[in-house]
Design a protein that fits this description.
By secondary structure, the protein is α/β, with parallel strands linked by helices. 42% of the residues lie in helices and 13% in strands. α5 packs across α6.
Length: 433
């Protein structure tokens, strides 16, 4: 298929600029944006050996996208152990999170920069049998090169905002050409499906992989230790919080019972020091997990600024308040909320703020099932959290309703796996002994 003028211009420009990539990557290493030991992976070079046989390549850039890949990776490894799985991501944080979460035998690599040479090196080394993209950005060189090599591609769980769709309207022929590289397109919601169709995609159906995950893993020893220290105090977890939310939530819940133990889990743990400073200015005492500060009988506020431990903290909770949902009420910014299915899968009652736009359908389903409540601002949290803490059985019933609704939301993976299997060679026949 011929390239559109915009796509041809992109290819020529990236070819001309690609010799600068090593220098730009070195600068990113110095700023802590790349792994110095693995930066060559961004150029498509790696000492890792490709396993023999078919290989499914799963790609997602950010932490959320990378985590949403895990149920599919687990499904492939469980049902087709003869098929190797390669996961590529684009950020240090996503690589760090996946380090302890990837199923046995799954390989992780950093995605190559979208330059012709880096893409060619990556594809020549890994020779994927099938490629599954779990993101919303379209990388022209990567997509066209994979298609040219005959790699079947699927765009899965894509969320296309109106802003993104408007941007692609400036290059409609290029958008249609890139979307045409996909054999299957499965957006995560109806709005994205309509936008992708208008851009020229052939939409198969809807799948949201973020709905298909299992319970978050956790360290049992860490859970037991914290549980013993907290004892029988009621626990509220403020999960995946953003700037300004922490202090507002702490102030609001400070009105509740003296015995309340509040765990604040910032979305970005590196903000722990800033959160500690803000709380100190307001006169709050606390313990900070990343600093190894102990939890004592006097501790009632815990800053859980570590990576990969959300599963521990959610299991300790009697009530979970989802962060990222109060930003409009506090600063006018829009974050869109975070995944309420993570506490719901553990049978925890969920409370959100007014902005759950990134999870609108899920939030609606949980609310309709009676497993989630929303408040317009942090100041109203006591009116919902207080009664739940005063009625433990009522809170458990609400959590069970959330758990059942979360289970119903995760059926899309079955449909997706059925479609993807058609692009894999038949499984080897096991001989009876």
């Amino acid at each position: 298929m011929a390239f559109s003028p915009a796509l041809l211009a992109y290819r020529l420009l990236t070819r001309a600029l690609e010799p600068l990539a090593p220098r730009l990557l070195d600068a990113r290493v110095k700023r802590g944006k790349e792994d110095t030991r693995r930066v060559d992976e961004r150029l498509g070079r790696t000492p890792a050996v490709r396993p023999h046989g078919p290989l499914v390549w799963l790609h997602g850039v950010s932490v959320g996208e990378a985590l949403s890949i895990l149920p599919l990776a687990e499904r492939i490894r469980r049902e087709r152990p003869d098929v190797a799985v390669l996961v590529t991501t684009g950020t240090l944080t996503s690589a760090e999170v996946l380090k302890t979460r990837l199923p046995t035998g799954v390989i992780h690599q950093f995605a190559p920069v979208d330059g012709p040479a880096a893409v060619a090196a990556f594809l020549s080394h890994w020779r994927p049998t099938l490629g599954v993209f779990v993101e919303s950005e379209l990388w022209p060189n990567l997509l066209t090169a994979a298609q040219a090599r005959g790699v079947p591609l699927a765009l899965v769980s894509a969320r296309i905002t109106q802003k993104t769709a408007d941007g692609w309207r400036r290059a409609p022929a290029m958008a249609k050409r890139l979307l045409g590289a996909f054999a299957h397109v499965w957006p995560q919601d109806e709005a994205s499906a309509q936008r992708l169709s208008a851009m020229g995609a052939r939409v198969d159906g809807q799948v949201n992989l973020k709905l298909s995950g299992g319970e978050l893993p956790y360290n049992k020893a860490a859970f037991s230790q914290l549980s013993a220290l907290i004892d029988d105090r009621p626990v509220v977890v403020a999960a995946s919080t953003h700037d300004d939310e922490e202090i507002a939530i702490v102030r609001a819940l400070d009105r509740l019972a003296d015995r309340l133990f509040l765990i604040v889990v910032p979305r970005h743990p590196e903000r722990g020091a800033a959160i500690a400073q803000a709380l100190s200015r307001d006169g709050y005492g606390f313990a900070r997990r990343s600093a190894g500060e102990p939890v004592t009988e006097e501790t009632d506020l815990y800053i859980a600024d570590t990576l990969g431990e959300l599963g521990v903290f959610l299991r300790l909770a009697d009530v979970v308040v989802m962060g990222g949902s109060f930003a409009p009420a506090l600063s006018g910014r829009t974050v869109g909320g975070h995944n309420p299915l993570e506490p719901a899968r553990l049978g925890k009652p969920v409370v959100t703020g007014p902005d759950a736009s990134n999870w609108a359908e899920v939030t609606r389903a949980l609310r309709d099932a009676g497993g989630l409540a929303s408040v317009p601002s942090p100041a109203q949290l006591p009116s919902v959290v207080g009664p739940l803490l005063a009625d433990p059985q009522g809170a458990r019933d609400m959590g069970e309703r959330a758990r059942r609704a979360a289970a119903e939301a995760g059926s899309g993976l079955d449909r997706l796996w059925l479609t993807l299997q058609a692009h894999l060679p038949a499984a080897p026949v096991r001989r009876a002994r």
